[in-house]
Amino acid sequence: GCGLDVSLMRYSPSDLRVDLPAEDLLNIKRGWLMKQGQDKDWTKHWFVLRGNGLLYYRDPKAEDQGILDGVIDLSSISTVMETQVQRNYGLQLSTWDGRQLVLSAVTAGIRTNWMSALRKAAGIQDSSLDLSSPTQEDEVPLSSSSTFNGKIVAIVF
Questions:
Q1: What is the distance between the alpha carbons of residues 71 and 96, in angstroms, rounded to a whole number?
Q2: How far is CA 147 from CA 61, 84, 156, in A?
Q3: b/e string for 49-70 if b means 16 or more Cβ within 10 A?
Q4: Which architecture does CATH list for 5-122?
């Protein structure tokens, strides 16, 4: 195999249950992405970013049942960058030893969100962020950005 032989094992959901502090639960990211295999074929997987592990499943039901297709250890990732793919919006993860994994998101916004989350989990500086100090016109009062028609708007990554 490809080092992901754990994908053949079945776990009961209680075996995989992790007690996380409340703030860590907010940092779990889930969603559909396409994954390019070694044969260049694309397969759709349900990805779950948990800590510095990127887990992937056939679908959300498989996640609930603990049937894992694979795990990517993000501590081995050196770069996360955009890449051209045949369709949709590609992102490429490269490891310190030169291996590459290509994923694809349905929209540019989804790709950007995943790239930021993956970089954060891997401890990589997000090069898309402007680290210069904001000018006066860039600053937005908190009240106008955090409320909408008097309701608090949640920001989901």
A1: 17
A2: 34, 37, 14
A3: bbebebbbbbeeeebebbbbbb
A4: Roll (2.30)
3 state SS of 5:
helix
SS3 56: strand
Q: Are 11 and 66 in contact (CB under 8 A)?
A: yes
Distance CA 103, CA 42 (A): 9
- What is the C-alpha to C-alpha distance for residues 69 and 87, in angstroms, rounded to an integer? 23
Block residue for tokens 């016109």: 137
- 14 in helix, strand or coil? helix
Name which of 29, 35, 23 is nearest 52 in CA terms.
29
Residue range 88-143, pLDDT digits in tens: 999 999 999 999 999 999 999 999 999 999 999 999 986 654 444 344 444 444 44
Is the pTM for the entire model greater than 0.90? no
> pLDDT for 58-82, tens place per residue?
999 999 999 999 999 999 999 999 9
Which amino acid type is present at position 140?
V
- What one-letter code names the amino acid at 129? L
* DSSP structure class, residue 46: E
